[in-house]
């Protein structure tokens, strides 16, 4: 498999690349890159060709409700993220060499795997379109919702979810947990969480309970496409969403991409792992700055850099 970018030796032992997931999208993302950089234009045009419609137009012009559809959001964030990575590595000699680790949040794991040479750009875009469609269908067939719970630890959230019939879906950071499940179960869980002392509970405007058992049909739908897609062993460790430990081979990659659809995203443990293994500089490629915001709160001494538009692609370390 041809690697997406020529990341080679030396390995920077204190550096990680991280890639965001759903919720970071906004109309207009990537337009400045497309206008200014031929390599970004090539990726957006290629994504349009792969998908058979103008995803670039949805990114640049909306309408917002079309961009927010999960089947569009997932490939849209990925192509924007990978265009930022591509341009940044071309313009910034300081990014020469490989990071010690890559990690992505939910759909961002696909971007991480492209950066690690495990998936091709084309296959990642195809798989994310399918993943988004399957998750959207699962959300329609098994209606559910999600909510953020702030100020409770994982143990308390687990107890709350068990009592209410909900599930933990994402552990972003200590005291920042997203729960999900059927709507009535989540409503009960939020009441129980407030009674336990949650600082704040925030219902989320989502089309399903992602990373919960309600997404199992979507995960099952990914098994065969992933089995048939070319997948290589990553050329650098990828920290898995489900386990927060490195995966190194193609079988583990395929298993992870099925499991992460319906199992919790362990982002807090991912950040802990990276910090404990000597990572001091985190570079987030993608729209927004969600992941570096979490990392700064968890690792006070971390050097966090955002690459999220045409102004920030010239990275200074």
Mean pLDDT: 95
CATH topology of the largest domain: Malonyl-Coenzyme A Acyl Carrier Protein, domain 2
Uncertain regions: pLDDT < 50 for 5+ in a row?
A: none
Q: Total number of helical segments?
A: 13
The CATH class name of the largest domain reads Alpha Beta
* H/E element sequence: EHHHHHEHHEHEEHEHEEHEHEHE
What is the number of beta strands?
11
Question: How much helical structure, as a percent, in the residues?
Answer: 40-55%
Q: What is the correct CATH architecture of the largest domain?
A: 3-Layer(aba) Sandwich
> What is the rounded distance between the termini?
30 Å
How many separate structural domains? 2
Looking at the structure, what is the overall shape?
A: globular
Largest sheet composition: 6 strands, mixed
CATH superfamily of the largest domain: Malonyl-Coenzyme A Acyl Carrier Protein, domain 2
Summary of the model, kept short:
The protein is of the alpha/beta class. It is built from 13 helices and 11 strands.
Task: Describe the protein in words.
- The chain is an alpha/beta fold and 317 residues long.
- The protein folds into two domains: 11-140 and 212-307, 3-Layer(aba) Sandwich (Malonyl-Coenzyme A Acyl Carrier Protein, domain 2), CATH 3.40.366.10; 144-204, Malonyl-CoA ACP transacylase, ACP-binding (Alpha-Beta Plaits, 2-Layer Sandwich).
- Helix content is 48%, strand content 18%.
- It has 13 helices and eleven strands.
- The protein has helices spanning 31-36, 38-51, 55-61, 64-67, 70-91, 108-115, 121-141, 154-164, 183-195, 216-228, 250-262, 267-276, 290-298, and strands spanning 11-19, 98-104, 145-150, 167-173, 176-181, 200-204, 238-239, 246-247, 265-266, 281-285, 303-307.
- The chain has a six-stranded mixed beta sheet. Strands 6-3-5-4-9 form a five-stranded mixed beta sheet.
- It is globular, with a radius of gyration of 19 Å.
- The mean pLDDT is 95.
């Amino acid at each position: 498999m041809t690697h997406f970018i020529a990341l080679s030796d030396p390995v920077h032992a204190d550096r990680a690349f991280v890639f965001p997931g759903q919720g970071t999208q906004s109309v207009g993302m990537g337009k400045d890159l497309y206008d200014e950089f031929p390599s970004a234009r090539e990726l957006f045009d290629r994504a349009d060709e792969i998908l058979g419609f103008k995803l670039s137009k949805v990114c640049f012009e909306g309408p917002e409700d079309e961009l927010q559809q999960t089947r569009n959001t997932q490939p849209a964030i990925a192509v924007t993220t990978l265009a930022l990575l591509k341009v940044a590595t071309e313009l910034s000699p300081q990014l020469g060499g490989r990071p010690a680790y890559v990690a992505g949040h939910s759909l961002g794991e696909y971007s991480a795997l492209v950066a690690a040479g495990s998936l091709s750009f084309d296959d990642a875009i195809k798989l994310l379109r399918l993943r988004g469609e399957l998750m959207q269908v699962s959300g329609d067939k098994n209606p559910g919702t999600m909510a953020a719970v702030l100020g409770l630890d994982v143990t308390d959230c687990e107890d709350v979810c068990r009592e209410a019939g909900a599930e933990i879906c994402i552990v972003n950071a200590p005291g920042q947990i997203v729960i999900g499940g059927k709507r009535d179960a989540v409503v009960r869980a939020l009441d129980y969480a407030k009674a336990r002392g949650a600082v704040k509970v925030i219902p989320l405007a989502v089309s399903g309970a992602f990373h919960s058992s309600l997404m199992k049909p979507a995960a099952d739908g990914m098994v065969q496409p992933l089995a048939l897609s070319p997948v290589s062993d990553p050329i650098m460790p990828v920290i898995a969403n489900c386990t927060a430990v490195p995966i190194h081979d193609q079988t583990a990659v395929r298993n992870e991409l099925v499991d992460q659809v319906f199992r919790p995203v362990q982002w807090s443990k991912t950040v802990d792992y990276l910090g404990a293994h000597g990572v001091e500089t985190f570079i987030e490629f993608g729209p927004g700055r969600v992941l570096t915001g979490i990392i700064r709160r968890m690792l006070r001494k971390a050097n966090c850099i955002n690459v999220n538009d045409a102004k920030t692609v010239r990275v200074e370390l």
